[in-house]
Amino acid sequence: MLRETPFYVESGGQISDRGEIQGEGWRVDVDEVRRVDGRIAALGKATGKVESGRARATVPRDRRRDTERNHTATHLLHAALRKVLGEHVHQQGSLVAPDRLRFDFSHHGPLTPQQLNEVETLVNRGILDGVQLTIEQKPQAEAKAAGAMSLFTEKYGDIVRVVSIPGISMELCGGTHVRNTSEIGVFKIVSETGIAAGVRRIEAVTGRAALDYYRAHERQLQEIEHLVRAPSGQVVRRVQTLVEERRALEKRLEDAMRTGGGGAIKSLVDQGSIVNGVKVVAANVIAPDLPALQAMGDALREQMESGVGVLAASFENGKNTMLAVVSDDLRDRGVRADTIMRELAAAAG
Ligand SMILES: [Zn+2]
């Protein structure tokens, strides 16, 4: 426990700080901060013998600033949601970490892509405008009269801390914030989901995490460009062409199967042998899947007129499959395809 602490203790969705406390011959890596009897206690792994006396507590600056960006962005997000969706939007929960933010709010049904776009644009406009924040201590009644937003679930004292982004938002809040909205850099929504009836959740990133997010997407795009061998900027057209080509090929393959593989089935029939007076065709064929193999079986049955056919294929999914067909006249005489398959399976062991 320190007389004065730089550590923020989890409150209003903003998670506790981490950092370290360095004393004479000892240090503590702080990984948890808790309120104990109204005072703030820092907990963590100690190295050396911890003694009371002078100590220096630090919170990594980058980490703290990332959190401040995300925290201030939730104020902008809250205001933007109310502007785009309506005054029924109220905060239902929030998580502010260094690498991301999560904001739960009351609203029926998913947001349309257009609404999400509008919300994101509004938040980024607030960032680009570079608005200076003001923080004031005020009597609660006065703050509420001025229109400050508060949480129904939170208990506030007589004197409250009012965090204003002039012209955009005014909230009762005890968290840490940037001084000017421009420090947030950029705001990017990464997901919008429903978590309960009438409650939606938006997850977003700002600053460094947003840059990482954009970079990861850029890398992915470059990989796709490379895979489909598309020059930069033409990947969509290239993929469109590939999809169309694939569709055309599938159609041609289907037609080919239906018409007996363009002569392939006929040559199988010609190569068949006669066993005990019955035509027998057995062959390995190339078929991508079961419907294709079945189509070939149908074609074979038609073309051999009278006989027994067995086709074996390795599908694209790696499965080996055999199919037996029997012409109508032999079937009428009691020859059954499933019996042939069973005997073949038994013979194959
Ligand atoms: Zn705040």
Key structural traits:
3 domains, 38% helix, 4-stranded antiparallel sheet, alpha+beta, Diaminopimelate Epimerase, Chain A, domain 1, 15 strands
Model description:
With 349 residues, this protein is of the alpha+beta class. It folds into 3 domains: 1-59, no CATH class; 64-225, Threonyl-tRNA Synthetase, Chain A, domain 2 (2-Layer Sandwich), CATH 3.30.980; 259-348, Diaminopimelate Epimerase, Chain A, domain 1, CATH 3.10.310. The chain is built from 9 helices and 15 strands. It has helices at 61-85, 113-128, 140-145, 207-227, 235-258, 264-271, 290-304, 328-332, 337-348; strands at residues 19-23, 26-36, 39-47, 55-58, 91-96, 101-106, 134-139, 159-165, 169-172, 187-196, 199-206, 273-275, 278-284, 308-314, 320-326. It has a 4-stranded antiparallel sheet with strand order 3-2-1-4, with no helix packed on it. A hairpin with a 2-residue loop joins strand 10 (187-196) and strand 11. Bound molecules: zinc ion. Zinc ion binds next to helix 1.
